[in-house]
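Practice problem 4.
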């Protein structure tokens, strides 16, 4: 299946515009119909381009046929939507995503030694080029846990001296960097911790016209944590990246921002609250509709308040 037949685009033109107009394309993860619909609704409502991100474990959870059936069923026509493999850990995993119709893949070689990361990324790039699929690579390592495929206890900042060489040798289309964000809901020990804007600045100076990517950017809204905990949940000491810091990063050549945890919290908060308020309900469509609305609201907030991507969709 070719992604163009599904109305999808790769990320190259998206990033060129984002760099020029100083905004970021949101990359939101999805893993079922509800998350997919909510992201597409938010994109449509705000006229924002969007990257539909699928992790290896989400792909396994949905299965190729269900996933691609949902994408086909969504009847995407806007030319502002990319389908992206998030954190592919092997050439085979990236090749598989390309073969089934993804328009963009990330090869995450961040835990590999530099030369091996270059070698593996290059192999993915060579294959992806045949299909005009874009490739994101990563240098530096983010700590934290997103799912069983994306976890690390290491936090290694990207070394600015490495980036020109890496991009030149791999010919990747975008580069994820580590400047202090992390995966999951527990990113901070105190609210005074800051991203390493000095590192971002050095990287952006070395690669002034190259799209940079920020993973682990969820804000972890405390109002959602409160709703979860008030309705039987137990999430303690969760803290995210303040919106102002992500906005500042977006003004410095970050043109793709990855958010997953915030929507998971919105989904969970809405379901917990809905079931608690209406304990007699056992129709999943009712509480899943509430959950979709809450996720859409969260995505719209992030598109308008953080990414600066509202209204940037191509007509
Ligand atoms: O790849 C996905 C994102 O990096 C998720 O980050 O846990 O901050 O939402 P998050
Ligand atoms: Zn990530």
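Answer key:
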């Amino acid at each position: 299946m070719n992604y163009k037949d599904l109305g999808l685009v790769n990320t190259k033109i998206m990033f060129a515009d984002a760099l020029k107009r100083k905004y970021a394309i949101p990359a939101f993860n999805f893993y079922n119909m509800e998350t997919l619909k909510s992201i597409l609704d938010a994109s449509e409502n705000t006229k924002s381009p969007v990257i539909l991100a699928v992790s290896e474990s989400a792909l396994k959870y949905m299965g190729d046929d269900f996933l691609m059936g949902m994408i086909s069923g969504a009847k995407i026509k806007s030319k502002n939507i990319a389908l992206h493999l998030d954190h592919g850990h092997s050439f085979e995993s990236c090749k598989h995503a390309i073969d089934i119709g993804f328009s963009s893949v990330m090869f995450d070689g961040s835990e590999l030694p530099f030369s091996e990361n270059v070698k593996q990324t290059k192999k993915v790039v060579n294959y992806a080029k045949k299909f005009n699929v874009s490739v994101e690579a990563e240098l530096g390592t983010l700590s934290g846990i997103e799912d069983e495929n994306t976890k690390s206890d290491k936090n290694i900042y990207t070394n600015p001296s490495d980036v020109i060489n890496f991009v030149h040798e791999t010919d990747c289309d975008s580069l994820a960097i580590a400047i202090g964000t992390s995966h999951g809901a527990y990113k901070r020990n105190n609210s005074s911790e800051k991203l390493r804007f000095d590192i971002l600045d050095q990287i952006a100076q070395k690669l002034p016209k190259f799209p940079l990517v920020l993973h682990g950017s969820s804000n972890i809204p405390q109002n959602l944590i409160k709703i979860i905990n008030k309705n039987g949940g137990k999430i303690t000491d969760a803290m995210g990246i303040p919106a102002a810091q992500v906005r500042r990063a977006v003004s410095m050549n970050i043109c793709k921002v990855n958010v997953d945890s915030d929507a998971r919290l919105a989904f969970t908060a809405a379901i917990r609250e809905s079931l608690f308020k209406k304990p007699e309900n056992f129709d999943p469509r009712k509480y899943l509709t509430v959950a979709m609305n809450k996720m859409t609201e969260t995505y719209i907030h992030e598109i308008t308040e953080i990414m600066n991507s509202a209204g940037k969709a191509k007509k």
